[in-house]
Amino acid sequence: MTNDRAVVALDIGGTKISAGLFSRAGKLLWQRGEATGQTSLDDSLDQITKLIAEAAGNAPSGCDVGGVGLAVPGWVNRRAGTVWAPNIAGWDHIPLAAQLQQRVQWPLTVDSDRNAYVLGEAWRGCAAGLEDVVFVAVGTGIGVGIISGGHLIRGHDDLAGCAGWFALRPEFQELYAQMGCFEAEASGKSLGRKAQERGFFAGRNDETQGARAVVEAAECGDAAATALLDEAAKFLGMGVANLISALNPQMVVMGGGLFQQGEYLLDAVRRETPRWAQPMAAERARIERSALQEHAGLYGAARLAISTGSGSDRISNER
Question: What are the extents of the domains in the chain?
């Protein structure tokens, strides 16, 4: 890929698709988002194809498109060449990359959103220049992207980073069988569920219910919200501590919906984590909030597109 080429990036979620056009140097040239189609697989492929074409059509004069990168919310099984994303209609172990490549003229690569998050943050975010980085995405669920020694860690079946299944308490609950202990205790969805169960939203309208409402209330000193958030922070601290002890990263980046506002939760995690982590590893690991925020996956998808065809999975030497 020459320096005058741009790349197309798509960050695909269950509710929204964000499309962007990037320079090779990492400058966002064009971006827009729209609701994710949920009618059928064919309609979904049509939507993605049109967004890719639209993004490519916004390339500056004399700047060619050199590749396309997609971040998707599910299991990208590279060995089988399939994607499983249960929150998108029709994405049931489908050969997504192969199907899209028939419609798109540029080289195309697909990876999980958690991998894209850490790629984006290590490329153009708060972890730029680091070789050992963990990105903890706390939203509807919990997922983790891992770069170790400059390489993206995927695992034998591309399931590395499914940290929502961390076992953090000995008393098993049936809910854990559906999503894992860590996710059931500390995700945004679970925070909203607990708040609902404990009557926190009583008297509030539907628009003011959910995890973000709890975070906002805690930031304002609400005692009930503070108790809910402190409980979540204990589990988040344990999970982050396990990652630090196992992986010895230079930085843990906290991202996702719960970390897009205020400092309360981030400060709580910083206080809680050292209690549980290997002391020397904890002392050396910075815990930061994502600098790219909701665009981390988009930047990561662009990084995937730039890396396509390089033959290397090393991140740090391709800036």
Answer: 5-118+295-307, 129-291
